[in-house]
């Protein structure tokens, strides 16, 4: 029989009490709290030193790539491919402009996320669940609330798989239904282009990554970060890398996203009309470390709410029997495979059990 000491029990009990309200972090803020509850307290060393270190690298910024000329001619496309290669190898993150997603679609998607999260609590509770397999559309706070050993993060989320088996219109709330369908259609199109460019950046045929089903499944997470009365005590999202091939992020103008680059935290400053692209763990694995999946986090903020939409090209915890390992085109006697074969399902199971604890699961799969 496993016993828990009082500290562990209190920690679990407080998380359970928070979860059972089904009102998330926004419910806490709406109650006019002035102090952050202790389950949200992160160790000081996880917040303040790193947050201050970003000041010293404020002159650094992640690459910004203009896709306007990608279809103009071969020379122009090759120039874009070279920028994508540099960003994927050295940063793991880049922002894209002139990406083809209309500005009004971006704005409506952000507005839709706000509408849902600011709707009547009783309406939101209709969608509250911790089972993203059984339910097409899920609302909750902190997917790893019970599994993670780290502190709870200051955000609420909605989760929905938009491809290849999208929900029916009736399965989505009125507040965000049309926006989610329209935005995901554009993201799937952009994803196809991104995987073409990434394939070319690896020196392979344009269709290579798409033929590996990298663009087949799209999981959308819509995050809502309420204003925080004590942002130096907690985080919006703690340090982690993504369990995806690729992530397309739409963020508003509040800011707070940071990436770990050369042992320093670098701000990913909001750029109007841009989308943030980042390499996921699975793309690092199949490219045998050619492209890098970088750890990142989101700071809490007195301003807000902050809204973001993360679209993951990954089947995540959904059943998927396809086996992946370092691509044969990228390995040799001089550059042997650095990872063992695995499935996205196996990897994601470990990812969700571990939670956002500040470590990368990739190390568990190294040979």
From TrEMBL:
Residues 216-315 form the Fe2OG dioxygenase domain. GO terms for molecular function: dioxygenase activity; metal ion binding. PROSITE patterns: FE2OG_OXY. Keywords: Iron, Metal-binding, Oxidoreductase. This is Fe2OG dioxygenase domain-containing protein. SUPFAM superfamilies: Clavaminate synthase-like. Pfam families: 2OG-FeII_Oxy (PF03171), DIOX_N (PF14226). Its cofactor is Fe cation. InterPro entries: DIOX_N (IPR026992), IPNS-like_FE2OG_OXY (IPR044861), IPNS-like_sf (IPR027443), Oxoglu/Fe-dep_dioxygenase_dom (IPR005123). The keyword Electron transport does not apply. Belongs to the iron/ascorbate-dependent oxidoreductase family.
